[in-house]
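Reading group handout, session on sequence-to-structure problems. Before we discuss, look at one worked example. The prompt was deliberately terse, the way you'd type it at a terminal:

> structure Polyhydroxyalkanoate depolymerase

The input record follows.
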Amino acid sequence: MGPLSYYQLYELNHAALSPMRAAADMFGQMLKNPLNPMSQTPFGRNWQAGLELFERTTRRYAKPAFDLPSTLVGGMRVPVTEHVVWQKPFCDLIHFERQLERPRRDPKLLIVAPMSGHYATLLRGTVEAMMPRHDVYITDWIDARMVPLSDGRFDLDDYIDYLVEMLHFLGDDVHVIAVCQPAVPVLAAVALMEAAGDRFAPRSMTLMGGPIDTRINPTAVNEMAQGKSLDWFAENVVMQVPFPHPGCLRDVYPGFLQLSGFMSMNLDRHVTAHQDLFKHLVAGDGDSATKHRDFYDEYLAVMDLTAEFYLQTVDTVFITHALPKGEMTHRGVPVDLTAVRNVALLTVEGENDDISGVGQTEAAQHLCINIPDDMRAHYMQPKVGHYGVFNGSRFRAEIAPRISDFVLTHDVARPSGKPVPVESAQAKAAQANTAPVKAVATKPTPAKAVTAKPIAAGKPVAARPKARAAKPVEVAATEAPADDLKRIAGIGPKLEASLNAAGITRLAQIARLTVKQATALDTRLALKGRVARDKWIEQAKGLLQELLAEAGSTSQGSATASVK
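And the output record:
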């Protein structure tokens, strides 16, 4: 590779071509001017077409806008406003707020866009199709080269943490759609939330063209990933962001390399499309030229991914197949798909998908064995490829209505779990800050890989034996006055309120947490390892000993005074 990385060479090449690109744009505008006598000549039109083609093939495409100013609700056109309602260094959560004259109780829909090169605006058609009947939110992932190194790392575990935090932010009446790559982290997040008894788990999840089990009908993308080691990817595609970008020195998988991979799969089609653009410009076919510009303005806009997220995803999804084998973990906690019982599941595939092969998404139906049969369905759309699963005329006419109906069907609140009752003796002990903590947890069952079987399009999968309903993890609460949990270093007023809402009001409850309960609590409240990192359990035990010592000295003093 030499002293300069491909990323640095790419930046130098882009900078070197900037003057020529500016000149091409300037002369192109001169030739378009109707007052220019050459503008209507064959020579002028050929020259103009060539200049535009040069400018478009050498520019860096910025992130497009969603540009969805209105939608149709109940037969009436209403304005739509975009709002960023939740924000983290690597992601914004955008709400498409419909300006309705009369409030509607439409289901909340969280669309999780892929973090695999293209921006979330690639799902513009998905958002547009779902807005008439749903209150839509979408994840807007941030280009890694724009995130300063000081904002820390971002890997697959962080991705799952982000999803859990978003679901907590949106409330307990949300439905999730995962398009392509996020099918795996969304399914993992739901499994973790279900195992923890988290009431904010979504009511339904729709997985579209996602690589749940890439061993089924492997595509060229899957075979390429399977044929290389993780070290190969780290050595050949991971590079540092060059100066002067805000993310300078961050290790990333560059967007221009991803784009090269996308285009190489259908290179002849892209070359032909640009040849056709030249012909349309010469012929003055403005409509066809505009369609080409709209498509490639979106398709050629790409973002960098953090190296740790990319490598962990490649290893987990494409090399080790950890999720379907039951071996995937999140911060050391096993992802148990058999824990998913209360979240309805819809899987959608395209017949001609050359990125996620037929059966790879449907595999989720066979792995989530404890979802009742009336809460699951699979649909395969004929005659569409990967992008046709979430965009285009067939998506609008056949796929989107099915998703919408599935969401509306399962937009019902799940029964909330009840805390384990505390016996009177334990309640008394709790008042002395020595109460043992009880929790009800589902016994984990390792997920086994199951070969996907064909399921009729649009119909539920075959009946399976119904498993006993799993009770959510609930820490027993007491009727005694709440302790001041802020005495534990690392717990502030806001976090104390969250713990109280989760049923934890006593120091004794924290002191008696098992490893499994502490992990479940960490996942439920998105604490990112605070319980272990700040040693809450050890701190709680120390504080209890201090309280007991104070109580003992007080009792002794009282007894001495009475004797005197």
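Points for discussion. First: Residues 417-479, 554-564 have pLDDT under 50 and may be disordered. Second: The CA atoms of residues 24 and 246 lie 29 Å apart.
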